[in-house]
């Protein structure tokens, strides 16, 4: 049943959608019972009450149709919702009817995968436009398709909800969640700032020693110490604080359980970093395996990065050297600080 | 008025009307009625004082306990319906105290609707119909207001609103206090919707097929008890009902009755129905005698029926049930036909009434009668009285054919005294009578060898020397002697009994007959209504070769008083006519009437002239013939045409709407749009039509390639249109059209006309 309802709602063949409300289901069951009782007993007064219940149902269908007639809904304005956080969009419903107000109207965008709390309009008088707020909540980042604008009413008796789907199309980019970052997750402050926290990076000052990782420059190998520890170790340098930051996001799903969740967390961390750094006024770029966003500043750059992250795929394979595209992008700006984000 | 107050008032109205439909059945005592009404009146406005968090769960517990009690009560009394209704009333009373949110109101209406359903079972009276009309109005209004209330609540408590629950409550209260929601327009719309609901209800009611045919149960209403029509009638019982105005029989006369016939020469007033001169037209004081049952044995205090052996009457070829098996009764001129609507009476065997002498009956609905398991059966006993067996508590409609021949005084005087033995044995015995009574009989019969004249003399004697009284009392030992010799006043039973005893003492076979006499002509329904107060006793005397003749010794003046019209009679008549219509067209509406109704719509049969409006097999045959004779091929072609026309209309409408959407980019009178459309028409005539896949500019490019002479003009006009339709300036705010636009269209037209169209080529 649920699948059938879902099919009907998704189908573009039916411009009207009709669904029972809870009260409507009760009335329907009572009506069926009344009909059975009337036929069984031959009691004409039961037939009369049965006729009344059927009349209420029929009139309800007719009036709900006429209640939607002549109404228009504005297009969904440009919104950039964040996953898991409700976004509000202003919708305008206009009545083009010469007479009779429309009652109990609800309007919302028809978006698969989104929870919507409709904009409600108690009465829209003839020729009047009213603005209402619609709330949408998307559980995951991504690109969502707008399938139409829905005008809906349960007027007059709350037995049914009749909905009219007005044609509309568009894409809605849902940004990944943005969290407050811990201090240790933040890159070092830029030159001239009061606080300077040394971190490992591409600077020239010695920072420490650590084990060799894929991608390390072989010239930084400490051969004698490697021989003593029976594993390759490299010199690590202090990152020179810079106003430019590259966020290097490895969008490859790590092996093992929970990989998809970890990549999502990584994307959210990258998004959080981007927002934080842009707010600090720094030049921020994003490099991923799937592509890059050139460094830039300002809130527009933040939106660019979040838009990119909204649809960033998580790669299912994770072979050695998969980070090469990222490093290639980073090589275009060697002075920038690189903040690595790995799942 | 504030929305909340208005909504609560509408709710009170709905609940009270639901209760009224139930309580007007008379099945519920004051212990149920008064609290239910009081709580329903006060509850919706006192809910705030009961708005405590713990009261909700507590009321649920109370409802549960009450449910258990109701169940036990139902099991112990086996009156499940009554227990269920009382429990529903209790739930309704409980719910009405907690009307806070829209869902509470909806639950209240569901309970009210259940009460209406229960009322449909226990209250078949017209009061149900009287209540239903305002109930539809109030329920419709209340449901619409609840819908608005739901919207108000959703707006006020929408997620993301400022503040917490307290702020929500404030917003909700403010919204519910709005005065601008319920305006005169809203009320007018509600009334219009109510009319729609009512009409659609009626449509469903009349058209929904009555397939049940009453196999499981039949529509019934409580039968009334009418004294005097059982096989034993104690002398004096009629006096108890003489003031009861409840209508028992309604009679429509299909033929004119003669005054002497209906009166039988025995006190029937001259202002008889025949005076009106039309079968269905009565004088306003229409008086009718409807014979019911005769009683033959008198034991001194009680009349008995000893001729109870009955035989079932069979339909003859005409579908009529003849009382004595003779057909000649109905072939004589002036046969009198009455259609009778007999109210439900207690008992499964019911006496049938008709104007004397009853010759035959006809039962309507014979065509569908065979389908019923609970068929009616007509019986006649040895005395010629007709009774009916069938389902109790159901009204019955039948037609009576009365033989007009008996009652001619000249013939009756010559009838003689050669009575058959069976008549003598049955209608002459008497209990021992006091000597004074025998003396009285002897005095009255002196010098009157002719039984008819003797009967007339006794009749006149009683009329002239005795007083009609409903309040007189007579002893239990020999009430008749008390009436004749001491008290000298009594009601019709005493008069009739006295005459029968005096006739039998004089050797004339006689019997007492109970029936109805009087009635009120109802001008609204064109029928005579006979009430319980019109119950009457009179006398039939036997004349050899002629049968039974009617005599009525009760003083006519007393009977005239009973038939008098009160100043409220017009109102009473209207109510009774409405009640009859309610019973016939609502309570007793069945498949036969449904078919009759449809047949009358198709003009297959006249309807509305009788109580029954029944169909016979012949009518069904006629309907079948007419249906067969319909031009089915034409109807099929017409239907096909309609189908094609409808499809064409739908396609046209769809195209027109699409066109409307496209044109909606610019108003239809926009000069640039008009110029562009003119250009398109000119190009179209020249064979240049825009493809659906082409934009306007692509089309202009193609035209320019095909007709270079027109390129400049076409491009100019197209650009003007594209700028107008798709440019940044909103519709209605653009400047005027570019100069020379129409001239450019003319230029394009000339250029296209000069240049012949290039030959079509597949290589293009």
Rg value of chain A: 30 Å
Give the CATH level 1 class of the largest domain in chain A: Mainly Beta
* SS strand fraction of chain B: 5-15%
Helix share bin of chain B: 40-55%
What integer is the average pLDDT of chain B? 78
N-end to C-end Cα span of chain A: 40 Å
Q: What does the main sheet of chain A amount to? A: 6 strands, antiparallel
Number of helices of chain A: 7
Percent strand of chain A equals 25-35%
CATH architecture term of the largest domain in chain B:
Roll
**Largest β-sheet summary of chain B:** 7 strands, antiparallel
* N-end to C-end Cα span of chain B: 75 Å
Sequence stretches where pLDDT stays below 50 over 5 or more residues of chain A: 191-198
Q: Please write the CATH class name of the largest domain in chain B.
A: Alpha Beta
Number of helices of chain B: 26
Average residue pLDDT of chain A: 82
Q: In total, how many beta strands of chain B?
A: 20
Instruction: Specify Rg of chain B, calculated over alpha carbons.
Output: 41 Å
Query: How many β-strand stretches of chain A?
Result: 16
In short:
With 343 residues, chain A is α+β, with helices and mostly antiparallel strands. In chain A, 30% of the residues lie in helices and 33% in strands. Chain B is α+β, with helices and mostly antiparallel strands and 764 residues long.
């Amino acid at each position: 049943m649920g699948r059938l309802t879902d099919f009907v709602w998704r189908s573009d063949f039916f411009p009207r959608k009709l669904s029972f409300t809870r009260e409507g289901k009760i009335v329907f069951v009572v009506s069926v019972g009344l009909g059975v009782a009337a036929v069984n007993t031959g009691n004409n007064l039961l037939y009369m009450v049965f006729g009344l219940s059927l009349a209420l149902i029929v009139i309800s269908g007719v009036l709900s149709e006429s209640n939607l007639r002549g109404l228009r809904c504005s297009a969904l304005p440009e919104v950039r919702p964040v996953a898991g956080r409700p976004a509000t969009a202003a919708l305008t419903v206009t009545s083009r009817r010469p007479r009779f107000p429309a009652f109990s109207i609800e309007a919302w965008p028809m978006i698969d995968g989104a929870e919507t709390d409709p904009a409600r309009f108690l009465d829209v008088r003839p020729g009047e436009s009213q603005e209402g707020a619609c709330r949408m909540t998307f559980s995951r980042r991504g690109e969502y398709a707008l399938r139409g604008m829905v005008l809906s009413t349960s007027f007059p008796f709350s037995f049914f909800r009749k909905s009219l789907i007005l044609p509309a199309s568009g894409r809605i980019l849902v940004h990944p969640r943005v969290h407050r970052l811990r201090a240790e997750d933040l890159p070092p402050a830029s030159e001239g700032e009061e606080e300077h926290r040394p971190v490992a990076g591409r600077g020239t000052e010695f920072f420490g020693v650590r084990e060799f990782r894929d991608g390390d420059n072989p010239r930084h190998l400490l051969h004698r110490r490697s021989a003593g520890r029976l594993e390759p170790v490299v010199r690590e340098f202090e990152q020179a604080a810079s106003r430019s930051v590259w966020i290097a996001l490895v969008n490859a799903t790590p092996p093992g359980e929970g990989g998809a969740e970890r990549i999502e967390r990584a994307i959210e961390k990258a998004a959080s970093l981007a927002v934080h750094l842009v707010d600090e006024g720094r030049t921020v770029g994003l490099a991923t395996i799937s592509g890059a966003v050139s460094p830039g500043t300002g809130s527009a750059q933040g939106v660019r990065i979040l838009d990119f992250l909204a649809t960033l795929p998580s790669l299912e394979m994770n072979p050695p050297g998969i980070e090469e595209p990222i490093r290639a992008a980073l090589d275009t700006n060697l002075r920038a600080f690189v903040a690595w984000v790995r799942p | 008025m504030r929305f909340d107050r208005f909504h609560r008032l509408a709710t009170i109205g709905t609940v009270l009307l639901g209760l009224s439909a139930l309580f007007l059945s008379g099945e519920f005592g004051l212990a149920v009625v008064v609290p239910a009404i009081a709580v329903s009146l006060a509850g919706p406005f006192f809910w705030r004082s009961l708005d405590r968090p713990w009261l909700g769960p507590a009321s649920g517990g109370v409802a549960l306990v009450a449910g258990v009690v109701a169940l036990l009560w139902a099991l112990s009394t086996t009156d499940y319906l009554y227990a269920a209704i009382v429990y529903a009333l209790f739930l309704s009373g409980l719910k009405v105290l907690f009307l806070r949110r829209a869902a509470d109101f909806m639950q209240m209406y569901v309970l009210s609707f259940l009460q209406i359903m229960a009322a449909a079972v226990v209250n078949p009276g017209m009061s149900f119909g009287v209540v239903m009309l305002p109930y539809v109005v109030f329920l419709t209004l209340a449901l619409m207001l609840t819908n608005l209330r739901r919207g108000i609540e959703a707006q006020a408590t929408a997620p993301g609103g400022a503040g917490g629950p307290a702020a929500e409550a404030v917003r909700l209260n403010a919204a519910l206090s709005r005065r601008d929601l319920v305006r005169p327009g809203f009320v007018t719309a509600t009334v219009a919707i109510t009319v729609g609901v009512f009409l659609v209800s009626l449509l469903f009611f009349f058209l929904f097929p009555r397939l049940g045919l009453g196999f499981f149960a039949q529509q019934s209403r409580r039968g009334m008890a009418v004294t005097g029509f059982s096989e034993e009638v104690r002398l004096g019982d009629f006096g108890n009902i003489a003031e009861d105005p409840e209508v028992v029989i309604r009679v429509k006369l299909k033929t004119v009755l003669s005054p002497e016939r209906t009166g039988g020469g025995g006190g029937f007033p001259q202002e008889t129905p025949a005076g009106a001169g039309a079968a269905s037209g009565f004088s306003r004081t229409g008086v009718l005698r409807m014979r019911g049952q005769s009683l033959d044995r008198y034991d001194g205090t009680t009349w008995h029926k000893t001729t109870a052996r009955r035989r079932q009457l069979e339909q003859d070829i005409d579908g009529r049930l003849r009382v004595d098996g003779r057909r000649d009764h109905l072939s004589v001129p002036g046969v009198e036909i009455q259609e009778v609507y007999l109210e439900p009476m207690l008992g499964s065997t019911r006496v049938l009434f008709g104007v004397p002498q009853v010759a035959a009956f006809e039962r309507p609905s014979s065509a569908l009668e065979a389908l019923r398991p609970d068929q009616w059966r007509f019986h006649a006993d040895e005395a010629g009285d007709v009774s009916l067996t069938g389902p109790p508590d159901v009204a019955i409609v039948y037609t009576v054919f009365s033989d007009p021949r008996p009652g001619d005084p000249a013939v009756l005087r010559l009838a003689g005294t050669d009575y058959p033995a069976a008549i003598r044995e049955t209608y002459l015995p008497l209990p021992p009578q006091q000597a004074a009574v025998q003396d009285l009989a002897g005095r009255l019969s002196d010098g009157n060898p002719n039984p008819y004249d003797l009967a007339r003399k006794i009749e006149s004697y009683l009329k002239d020397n005795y007083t009609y009284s409903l309040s007189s009392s007579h002893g239990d030992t020999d009430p008749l002697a008390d009436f004749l010799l001491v008290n000298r006043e009594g009601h019709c039973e005493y008069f009739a009994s006295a005459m029968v005893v005096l006739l039998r003492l004089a050797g004339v076979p006689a019997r007492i007959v109970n029936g109805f006499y009087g009635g009120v002509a109802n001008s609204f329904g064109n029928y005579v209504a006979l009430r319980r107060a019109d119950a009457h006793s009179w006398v039939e005397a036997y004349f050899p070769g002629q049968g039974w003749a009617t005599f009525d010794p009760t003083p006519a003046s007393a009977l005239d008083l009973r038939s008098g019209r009160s100043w409220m009679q017009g109102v009473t008549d209207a109510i009774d006519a409405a009640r009859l219509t309610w019973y016939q067209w609502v309570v007793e509406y069945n498949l036969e009437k449904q078919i009759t109704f449809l047949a009358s719509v198709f003009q297959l049969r006249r309807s509305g002239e009788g109580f029954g409006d029944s169909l016979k097999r012949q009518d069904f045959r006629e309907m079948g013939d007419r249906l067969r004779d319909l031009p089915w091929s034409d109807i099929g072609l017409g239907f096909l045409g309609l189908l094609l026309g409808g499809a064409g209309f739908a396609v046209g409408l769809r195209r027109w709407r699409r066109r409307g959407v496209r044109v909606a980019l610019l108003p239809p009178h926009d000069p640039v749009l008009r110029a562009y459309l003119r250009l398109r028409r000119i190009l179209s005539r020249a064979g240049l039509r825009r493809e659906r896949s082409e934009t306007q500019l692509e089309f202009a490019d193609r035209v320019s390639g095909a007709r270079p002479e027109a390129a400049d003009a076409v491009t100019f006009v197209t650009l003007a249109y594209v700028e107008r339709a798709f440019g940044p300036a909103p519709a209605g705010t653009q400047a005027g059209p570019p100069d020379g636009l129409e001239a450019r269209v003319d230029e394009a037209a000339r250029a296209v006309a000069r240049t012949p169209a290039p030959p079509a080529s597949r290589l293009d």
